Amino acid sequence: MACIPGALPFAFDFDPASTALIVIDMQRDFVEPGGFGASLGNDVTRLQAIIPTVAALIQAARNAGLPVIHTRECHKPDLSDLPPAKRDRGSPSLRIGDPGPMGRILIAGEPGADIIPELAPLPAEIVLDKPGKGAFYATPLADHLARLGVRSLIFAGVTTEVCVQTTMREANDRGFACLLAEDATESYFPAFKAAAVKMIRAQGGIVGWTAFTAEIATALKGGAE
Ligand code: C5J
């Protein structure tokens, strides 16, 4: 067993043998200029700032033998998994599926949908394409976690209040103990990130726990922070 004593709202006990790291949507479309995030008028530099921390967390997980699962929010090239209700919102000038500087916006197989090279998955790691904000919806994530015997999940990635929080809530409802790496997640809106982090750990950890990457890495190495 491992423990992160400084986790909030209280110490997070977990068994590394049944824990996985989920890295949400660290894609060029969200993190680089010219992608989906930027098309909505967002400043992507906020998201770029967490790249080294996410890389450190991924390395700590790999060193400890945890499965690392990467997700990508994207749609099929024929848009058959893109409901009009989703396509018709966002930027009217650059919608999902439209050609952009990194290929068609948020479309599987296009350069913009790729995970950023700094955080490239290893060949054996699971990479899931998801058409929704949550990573359980219309994906085999639940099957992978059951096959791997995972009971606890550590979360990183973007954006905190959209895809990260949605997936944590989905996981929480499915009975997983969920920990968010607070400094390995980011939002285009600092106030939204702060609110999401507070919501997750409010009311006795109604969605889960939060902790910092250094604390998680220490626990994964077998020590207590
Ligand atoms: C958004 C995401 N924000 N990955 N997607 O549309 O959070």
UniProtKB/TrEMBL annotation:
N-terminal signal peptide: none
Any Pfam family matching the protein: Isochorismatase
CDD domains given in the database record: cysteine_hydrolases (cd00431)
Region (Disordered): 75-94
Molecular function GO terms recorded: hydrolase activity
InterPro entries assigned to the protein according to its UniProt record, in alphabetical order: Isochorismatase-like_dom, Isochorismatase-like_hydrls, Isochorismatase-like_sf
Annotated Gene3D superfamilies: Isochorismatase-like
Basic and acidic residues bias spans: 75-90
Keyword Nuclease: no
Domain of life: Bacteria
Keywords recorded for this protein, A-Z: Hydrolase
Protein's name in the database: Isochorismatase-like domain-containing protein
Organism of this sequence: Frigidibacter mobilis
Classification of source organism: Bacteria, Pseudomonadati, Pseudomonadota, Alphaproteobacteria, Rhodobacterales
